[in-house]
Design brief:
The chain is an alpha/beta fold and 226 residues long. It contains eleven helices and six strands.
Length: 226
């Protein structure tokens, strides 16, 4: 029996909620357990329904998606939040991520990519559309959302853990490249790219590719440093 990922859809437009719910109903591992029209309603339903993932619109009357996400994060709530919006503005994207969202997608996203993002954040990862990642990486260094980290190995020691190929892939992640683009440019298979990225995440002690890209930028390893 498949354990389904429980999803709550939050948007002030009923037609958009219904459309997303219809698309997700085609996925045998995803179940839409509820819908909410604003941030206050979302917080109430989350407490009752205990979803795994919340698809959160950004701009809503009353309590908006960013503030609702911030309150969830502050309360240590279990659901992972994906901001799903039409806004491409850098500041809007950064506000969503700083509030504690695990993902940020545009509403014109393909239903397959949306489902994959839901699966990713439900399993503890993070997901930003590559276009969004490339757009905001230059600004991510100014976001401070986590408590002071525990002492870690110095930059030079962590860099020494990476092979030359892993270092090259890390730079490409910082440039917003997708797995397919890395595969094409390095002439290696998608599976090999994924294996290298998993190794990079372990050596840098970060959770997902977005955090790895941020680490690279913060340590002067962005694509422009090649």
């Amino acid at each position: 029996m498949i354990t389904k990922i429980r999803v709550l859809i939050v948007d002030d437009q009923p037609l958009i909620r219904a459309g997303i719910a219809t698309l997700l109903a085609r996925k045998n591992d995803i179940e839409v357990v509820g819908q909410a029209g604003d941030g206050h309603d979302a917080l109430t339903q989350i407490a009752v329904l205990d979803p795994d993932v919340v698809l959160m619109d950004m701009m809503m009357p009353g309590l908006d998606g960013v503030e609702a996400t911030r309150r969830l994060a502050a309360a240590g709530a279990r659901p992972a939040v994906i901001i799903l919006t039409t806004f491409r503005d850098d500041d809007d994207i950064l506000r969503g991520i700083a509030a504690g969202a695990r993902g940020y997608l545009l509403k014109d996203v393909d239903h397959r990519d949306l489902a994959e993002a839901i699966r990713t954040v439900a399993s503890g990862g993070g997901h930003l559309h590559p276009e969004v990642t490339a757009q905001i990486l230059p600004h991510l260094g100014r976001i401070v959302t986590q408590p002071a980290p525990t002492p870690q190995a110095p930059k030079s020691e962590r860099l020494q853990l990476l092979t030359e190929r892993e270092l090259a892939i890390l730079r490409m992640l910082a440039g917003g490249n997708t797995n397919q683009e890395i595969s094409d440019q390095m002439a290696i298979s998608i599976g090999t790219v994924k294996n290298h990225i998993s190794s990079i995440l372990g050596k840098l002690d970060v959770r997902d590719r977005t955090q790895a890209a941020l680490w690279a930028v913060q340590h002067g390893l962005g694509a422009d440093s090649l």
